[in-house]
UniProtKB/TrEMBL annotation:
GO terms for molecular function: carboxypeptidase activity. Belongs to the peptidase S11 family. Pfam families: Peptidase_S11. It comes from the Bacteria. Residues 1-27 form the signal peptide. This is D-alanyl-D-alanine carboxypeptidase family protein. Keywords: Carboxypeptidase, Cell shape, Cell wall biogenesis/degradation, Hydrolase, Peptidoglycan synthesis, Protease, Signal. SUPFAM superfamilies: beta-lactamase/transpeptidase-like (SSF56601).
Length: 307
């Protein structure tokens, strides 16, 4: 069963690589061209509400289907994926980080989600990554940026430098949390860039471990209070095979979701942007529509081969 899945995955990947070029960095084919190259009979997932979306092979990064793949859109807290990538690249995750007094005001001033951090408490960079990626703590993002930039502007420069190195030419970060500062659209990306970022981030073992967690507890210590954090990623709890990665929501960005699943041994990375103004459920539902469109014929073929 696993051997067949692997063969099927390789066959699909080879077709896509020949047709679309090697990986995300290659010029993306048009939507109509993508549809004709795919082994699926449907022209795309039905009922999708997202303004922008993309679904890619989780190994090669080749986009399988997209909507507005190269349209720049605000991405809200999906920006925290890059925040985490930059921190992990420091190779200094056990560094003690003191939570700045400004972190709480930063969150409150922009109505941002928090990890419930207290000014002056000390946690490691690794612990703060959990606070960043599970409850989507803007206070954790602020603390990490101050420590690893050093300072907000230094850290933003590192985020944007990393985006350039990755070839994410339609991506810019103006805030380490993706908050609407200084304007609603100051931090932006595209569906194609985000699935490329997702593939890169999920290749990092530390990142992959963190975003796979549904819950995380930091015990109380001499310099910190106890923290209980739960993921905001509904897909992780509700869709079989989901292994990460990050939600996002602002008024301008709506509800967004960057995700990865593995079913039948086949990893897929996808993103939906602005699925709804009001409901994270709609972002989850959009992701499920895309995944079912991709996986159903594969799982059906595996079932037929097993009989």
């Amino acid at each position: 069963m696993r051997t067949f899945a692997r063969v099927l995955h390789v066959a699909i990947a080879c077709v896509l690589l020949v047709s679309a070029g090697h990986g995300i960095a290659a010029a993306a084919p048009t939507a109509s061209a993508v549809r004709t190259q795919l082994p699926w009979t449907a022209t795309g997932p039905d009922g999708l509400r997202a303004q922008g979306a993309a679904l890619a092979d989780g190994l090669t990064g080749t986009v399988l289907w997209s909507r507005e793949a190269h349209t720049r859109l605000p991405i809200a807290s999906i920006a925290k994926v890059m925040t985490a990538v930059v921190v992990i690249a420091s190779n200094d995750l056990e560094r003690p980080v003191t939570v700045p007094a400004e972190a709480a005001g930063y969150c409150a001033g922009h109505n941002g989600s928090t990890a419930g951090l207290a000014a002056g408490e000390v946690l490691t960079g690794r612990q703060l990554l959990y606070g960043l990626l599970l409850p989507s703590g803007c206070d954790a993002a602020y603390a990490l940026a101050e420590a690893y930039g050093p300072g907000q502007q230094g850290f933003l420069a590192r985020m944007n430098d990393t985006a350039r190195v990755m070839g994410l030419g339609n991506t810019h970060f103006a805030d380490p949390s993706g908050l609407p500062y200084p304007t609603d659209h100051a931090t932006f990306s595209t569906p194609a860039d985000l699935v490329a970022l997702g593939v890169r981030a999920m290749a990092l073992p530390v990142f992959r471990e963190i975003v796979a967690a549904r819950d995380f507890v930091v015990p109380a210590g001499a310099a910190n209070r106890e923290h209980h954090w739960s993921t905001t990623n509904r897909l992780l709890r509700e869709y079989p095979g989901t292994i990460g990665i990050k939600t996002g929501n602002t008024n301008a960005a709506g509800h967004c979701l960057l995700f990865e699943t593995v079913r039948a041994g086949i990893p897929l990375v996808g993103v939906v942007l602005h699925s709804s103004d009001t409901s994270s459920v709609e972002a989850k539902n959009d992701a499920e529509r895309m995944l079912n469109w991709a996986y159903d014929p594969i799982v059906g073929a595996l079932g037929s081969a097993a009989r």
